[in-house]
Amino acid sequence: MLQGTLDVFSLDEVLGLLSGAKKTGVLKISGDRGSGSLNLRSGALVAGSAELASGDNGISDAIFELLRFESGSFVFDASDDVAGSDSEQLSIVLEAAHVRLGEWKAIEAVVPSMHHLVMLAGDLGVPQVTIDAAEWGAIVMVGEGKTVGAISGRLGLGEVDGSRRIKDLVERGLVSLVAPDFAPASELPSRSSAMPAAPPIPALPTFDDEASLVDASGVIDDSAPVLMNAMPESLPTRRASDVEAEIAAFESVMPDDDEVVAFESESESVVEVEVGEDDGENGSLLMRYLKSNG
Predict the structure, then answer these.
(1) Which of 25, 50, 212, 246 has the greatest number of beta carbons closer than 10 A?
(2) 3 state SS of 1
(3) Integer Cα distance of 231 and 207 in angstroms
(4) What does the DSSP 8-state code read for residue 205?
């Protein structure tokens, strides 16, 4: 089995190796533009397919599409039984595919992506223009405010042919392109593009299974054997000892039951109380309590 990545060995090099060794089997490629496969019999290409390939040229379209992969991997499974009745010489197919790649580079320089919005030109710059039926269909959709991908799809054109149609209109000064703020996934055919890597998910705190870290009230159980690897800074926590100290401080300033009963009975008979500087012992229970507790 032969396998590797396209950043180390190009598709041309891999196919040249297999063809030179007159190998029979299936070469499978997967990468940034989907996946595809090429069937070889005694070093000759007999069949091919690719996810985003357009057209009816079979192996030629598949080779052209697979050569556009910027990154990916390949694996070759040798087999004496491969599907495909065609038999095309590798060098001829590759030469034709590279000619198409050169044409595609020229199209891509004018139409950078299928997600660019196509707008009617405000000023033609010429006194008159002639538009054929195919171009008129595209211009009608341009007036509706469509992207390159949407127009290509409505016209039944693949990525290459659709982009070529828009390129011709741009070069004739009939339309202009506006770069997208984002690339809508719903408009196909779509030129694949690398997506930004998702930010790593932060590790969650891990705790010993023998006890939970915090109970429902947010109080840490001091006695529980807890192993804490990470703790969110925003999580409010209090230790049990702190809570007990707060409760004791609160209870120390509260009157006990006897004082409450005495106060209630005395307040029924006392209408007005005046306490002087030396009334510490003779003052009412309420005033003594207030003095003693600030």
Answers:
(1) 50
(2) coil
(3) 10
(4) P
C-alpha distances in Å from residue 208, one per residue of 47, 97, 123: 58, 61, 72
Q: Quick one: tokens of 212?
A: 């939970």
Q: Which helix (H) or strand (E) holds 288?
A: helix 285-292
- On whether the CB atoms of residues 166 and 148 are closer than 8 A, the answer is yes
pTM of the model: 0.52
Going by C-alpha positions, the residue among 106, 124, 108, 104 that lies closest to residue 116 is 108
Instruction: Enter the tokens of residue 144.
Output: 């509706």
Of the chain, the end-to-end C-alpha distance in Å amounts to 90
Can you read off the two tokens belonging to residue 254? Answer: 């509260």
Tokens 């005046």, residue located: 274
User: Whose structure tokens read 């190009």?
Assistant: 10
Chain segment 199-244, per-residue pLDDT in tens? 555 554 444 444 444 544 555 455 544 444 444 454 455 566 676 7
Place of tokens 């509706």: 144
With a pLDDT cut of 70, the percent of the chain lying above it is: 63
CA–chain centroid gap for 209, Å, is 34
